[in-house]
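Dear colleagues,

I hope this message finds you well. In preparation for our joint manuscript, I am sending the Orc1-like AAA ATPase domain-containing protein (Coregonus suidteri) sequence together with its predicted structure, so that both groups work from identical material. I would be grateful if you could confirm receipt.
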Amino acid sequence: MMHYPGMVSCDSETCYYSKLPAFYFNELPKKAMKGVKNPGALYQFMANKHQITVGKAPMSVEREEGYPLLGREKEIEVYSSVLKGFLEARAAGHKNYNNVLIYEGPIGYGKSRLLAEVVYRTAKDGVRVISFELAKTDIKQSNYALQTLLAIVMSVQNCKSYAERERVLLSKILDSKMRQNLCLLNDILLVKFPVSKDVSLMDSQTKNKKMRNYFLELFCKFAEEEPCVYVLDQAHFVDQASWAFLLEACKRASVLLCMALLPHTSQSGSFPELSRIIKDPRTLYLNLPGLEPPVIAQLACQILGVVRIPSEVELFLVERSHGVPYYCEELLKSLYLGNLIVMEEVEEEDEAKDIDILFPEPTLVVHCSKPSQVWQEEDARAGALGPPKASMLKSRKITALDHFVDRALVCFVGEAAKFHEVPIPLTLKGMALAHLDHLQPADQMVVKCAAIIGHTITTQMLINILPESENHDKLNLSLTSLFKSGTFECGSKPKQFTQQLTKESECWGALNCYCVQDSQEDIREEVSGKASVDGVWRCRVMRFCTALVKETAYELWLKEQKREIHQKCASYLLKQAHRCRDCGIAEFIFGHKAAIGNNLIEIHPSLLNIQESGEALFLGQSTLGLPKETIQLNQVSPLHPNSSEEDEFLLKLDSRVDEYKTTVDRSRKCRCAQVMECVLCPMVRHCTGVGDVPKTFYYLLETAAASAFLSNNLKALSYLNEAKIILDNLKVGKPAFETADPKVKVKINNFERACVFRLRGEVLYNTGQMEEAESMFASALRLLNRRLPTNRVAVSLKYVCEKMKSLCCRSKNFDNPGEKKLAFLHEQVCCLSYMWQIGCMRRAPKDMLNASLAITMEMNSAQRTAEENKIIFSCIDYLQYCQLSGLDDQCKSYERMLCGNFVELSDCMEGLTLTSYFIRTLSIVKLCSGALHDSIQYGLRAEKISKLTNRRVPDMLVIAVLHTPLLLTQRYEECVQLMQSLEYQGNRTRISTAKGWFYVGCFDFLLYSGFAFRPFEECYTFVEESQSDPNLVADKSLMMNLYSALALWYARLCEWEKACFFYTKACGVTQQAPSSIHSINGVVMFLECHVLLFRKALVEHNQHIKAIYQSTQKHFTEFNRKYSTNKMYAPRVLHLRAYMYLLAGHEALATAILNKAVMLCQQHGNKLEESWIAQNQISWFGVFRQSTSDWFASTLTMPSWEEAKGMDPEELTHTRYTLMGVGSEIWADNSSLYLAPKAEDTQLLKGQG
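The corresponding C-alpha cells are as follows:
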C-alpha cells in the first residue's frame, strides 16, 4: 500500500480471516487517505521472525456470555461423558477410558466455538485446561506444537525473558535427577541452562532421543500431579515431530486430549502418528453434521440480535447455508449490508384488556417457602425468554448492529428484496475457488459437470454428460481422488455421529460406499464397502461434501454450455419423474399432466438418451409403465346404513390390518422422499437451466406437492415462492426467470395457478395460520370455477341450491368425466375439505353457514367425479362435520354406513390410506363425544395403520390427539409409550412441531398426573428455544398449549410476575388459534389460569373483584360457544366452574355442578378427572388443606416416570396439585360483596332441588 511503503499491510477483515496469531500483526498509525473517508484499523504483517515467543498461541474464539452454543448438544454430551470417565478412571488408578476425543468438520462448522465451550465447561468443573490454537505456518516449524504445549504446562508462556523463564522452571522442577538435565530445555523453551557434561558428550542422534524421553518424563510427571485436559484447535497444523510426541504421551500419561481437525487430514500419508492416534481403540472420533433448520433460525436470531426472523429469511438460510454456521453468518451479513433485511424495534404486544386489574402493582404475594437452587437457576433462564424488563442479546458478529444494543428487535424483509438473486458472498466464493484450484484439471471437469446435476449425483448420469474423452478408467481415478480430497462422498452414507476406527480402516472411510449392490437388494442394514474395487467404480450415488463448492463450480460454466448440459440431464431424468410405484399414483398432483396438456411436458424422442432401462437411480424400481391401483367398489351395494355391529367391524378391521401389514412389510417400501431428492428437485433445476418455463412450473408444483406430502413445509413453501415469482414476472411482462427466452410468450393455465394457492393454503393450514389459509383456498376455488360467495344472503341462496343438487345427485349416475375435468374436481374437493373445517373452527353462525355450504359443495363435487374413493372421502368429512355441528343422529347414521363399506375395501395402497383417514376421523369423533374408550380403540388402530401408509405426519397428529384419552383414563404406561414414539419420530423426521406436541404431553403429565415424564427445566428450555423457530411460532394451537401450560404452572406456584408474562403471551395467541381439537387442551388450561387469578384477587382484596369475576364467567361462556360439541373436557370445565362458584361463596351451587361433573366422568370413563374431583372435595369440604408452599415442595420431589410406573395412580395424588379454597375470613372482609351466578347455572341447582 502506497501510504505505508516498505511493509506488508492489510485491513482488519483480512487480519481476522487470516486466522493467524495476533502477534503476527502490528497496528499501524492512522493516515489520511485520498478518497477513503474512514479506512478503519490497518495492520502490518510482521510474521513470527520479528518476535521470539514461547507458548503464545491462544485460542482465537472464546465463549461469549449470553450467546449459548446452538445445535451441538450431542457433541457436548459426549464430551461430558468422556470427561466423567477420565476423572473416574484417574481416581480408580486405571486407564480404561477414552483419552482422545476428536471433532472433525469442514471449515465453518463451528469447531472452534465447540472447543471454546469445552474449555469453559471443563474450567467450570474445576479441572485444569491447557488450550491453544495453531496456524498454517506452524506446520513447517518442527516441534512448534510441542514447544507451545510444554511452555503452557510449565507456565512460562507469559515470561518476557529467558531469565524469568529459568526462574519459573526451577520453581516447577524440584526433582534433583531431572534438574541435572535442564539444559535439554534450552532449545525448546529458549532458556540458557548450563550444559551438563553427559549431554555435551552426546552425538546429535543420542541427544535428540534423550531430549524426547526427557520431555515425556516431564510431561508425565506433571500429568500425574493433577488432572488436566488438553484442548488443541486447528490440530491439522501440528508438525510431524509433535505428533510423534503426542502419540507417546497419550500412551504413557493419564491425560485427556480434545482436538479439532479438518476432514481427511491424514490422507496425504505425511503423518502416520496421527493415523495411529485416530485408529487407537481409546480414541473417540466425532463427525460434526450441519445444523438442523430450526437451529439455523435460532443461530440467525443470535447473530442479528433479534427475537425472530421472517420465514422468507429462514428459507433462504436453510437452502443456501446448508447447515454451516459460518455460511449462515456471511449470508446474513450480505443480506444486512445489502438492505435486504431491516431491523426494527419490537412493538409492544397488545396486552389483555384486564391485565392491569389482574396483575396490579404492587402485588401482594402469597407467602411460600424459599426457592431452591434449582429454581433460582431456572429464574435466571427465564430472563432469556423475554420477560417485560429483560435485556436483549447483542448481535454476535455483525458489528454494524452495535447501535441496537439493549433494544428488542425483530427482523423484517426489506422492500423489493429478491432472495433468489442474492449472489454467493465473495468470502465464501474465495474459499470454494481455493479448493477447486488444488484439484487436477480432469478432476475439475468432473466437479463442474457434477455441479450441473445438483447436490446429489448418480454415477450413470455423470457418465452420460461427461465429455466422450473421459473413459471409465480416467473417471475412476478422478472420482477416487475427489473422494479422498473431501469433494465427494457416498450419497447413501448414513449420518454417523461417532465412530471408533480400527487399524484396518483406510483413509478414515473416505472411499467407503453405502449403496446397495445388486447382491444386497434384500439387505436392509447399512453395510459399507469400497467405492472402487479393482479399478471399477461401484458407488451408484454420490453427493458434494460441501454445497458451496457445487454452487461455485456451477458458476464457472458459460451460459450456452449450461443450457446444453441441463438439457441432457432433463432428458435423462424424464422417465423417472413420478411418484414411487408403491404409492400407486403417477403424480403428486392428481391429473396434473392431463389438466395442462401432456404435450407440454414430453421431451422430443430425438433428445432422449440411449438409456432404455431407466436405471431408476438407486431406487431399485422399474421406470416403465406404473400400474395405477384404484379402489374397486363396484361389487359393493350403494351406500346405505349397514347393520353390522361395531365389535364385528373392529374384528374385521384388525384382520384386514394384519393382512395389510404382511403385504406391506414384504413388498412395499415408499421411496417418494428419494424420488423428490434425486429426481424432482433436479428436474426443477435442469428445466430452469434450459429456460423451459412450462416444464419448470410443472416440476415446481410437483416438488412442492411432494414436500407437502412428506410434511416438509419449509421446502414446500420455498418452491411455491419460486412459482409465485414466475407468476408475478409473467403478469408484468417480464421473463419468468433469468434463463427464460423473453421472446417466447408463456401463459400458465388456471389449474396450475389454483394449485399454487391450494398448496400454499395447505402449508398455512398445517402450521395453524387459518385466516391466511382460508384466503388461499378461496382464491384456488375461484380459479377452479367453484367460487364461494362472501355475502351472507348469497351464501344462504347458494346453500339451498347446493342442497337441491345434492338430492338430485343421489338418484343420478354420473358418467366418468374426462381426465382434465376429473383433475379440476379433485382439486375442488381438496379445497372445500379444508374450507368447511376452517368454518367449523370459528363457530360463529356465519362461519357455520359457510362450513355447511362448503361440505355440501364438496359432496356434490365428489359425486360428479364418479369415483367411489372420492365419494367415501367426502362422506368421512361429512361424518366429522355432523359431529362438530351437533347433528348426532346423522353422525351415527354415516358412521354405520361407512363401517359397512370399509369392510369391503380392496387391498391397495389407496384403500389403506383411505382406511387410515376414516379410522383417524372416527377416533376424533368418539373423543369429541366423550367416548374415551372407543376413541382409544380406534386411535390405536389408526396409529398402527398410519405406519403402513408411510405418512408420518398423520401418525404424529394421531398421537398428539390420542394421548389425551389415554391420560384421562389413567392408562399412563400406554400414554408414555405413545409419547416416546412421537419423540422418536420427531427426532427422525426433524419435524419441529412433532417435538412441540411431545412437550405439550410432558406438560400434561406435570400438571395433572403427579409425575414428571420430562423435567420441567427441559420443557421450559424447549419453549424458550421455540421463540426463534418460525415453524413452531406459526402453529398457534401448539403455542397456545405451551404458553398456557407455563402460565398455569407459575400461577399454581403464585409466581405472578412469570405467570403474567406467559398469560399475556397466551392471550395474544388465543385470538389467533383455531377452535380445533388441538387447541382445546390449551384453552382449558387457560381457563384454570383465569379461575386462579380470580382466587388471587380475593386473597389480595383486589378492588376489581367483581369485574374479574364477570370476566371469568365470560371466558366460560365463550368456551361453551366454541366447544359446545366437544365433550371430552366437559367434566374438567364443570369442575373449574364449580371451583369458581365455591370461591364466589355459592357452595351449594358448586356441589351441584360437581355432582354433574362426577356423573359425566363415570359416563366417559374419565378416571383422572374423577380422582382429581375427589381430591379437591376433600380439600374444600374436609380437613385436608394444601398450601402453595406444600405444592411447591411437591414439585421438587415429583417422581420421574421410572419411579411412578410401578405406583398406583392414587399414590400420585400427594404430588398432584389441589385447587385451594379461601378461608371464611376472606369473605368476612368482603361481606358487602355479592357475586351473582349465571342464570343457567342456577337452573341446575333448582332442578336438583
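For the figure legend, we might mention the following. The chain has 52 helices and 18 strands. The longest strand covers residues 128-133.

With kind regards,
E.M.
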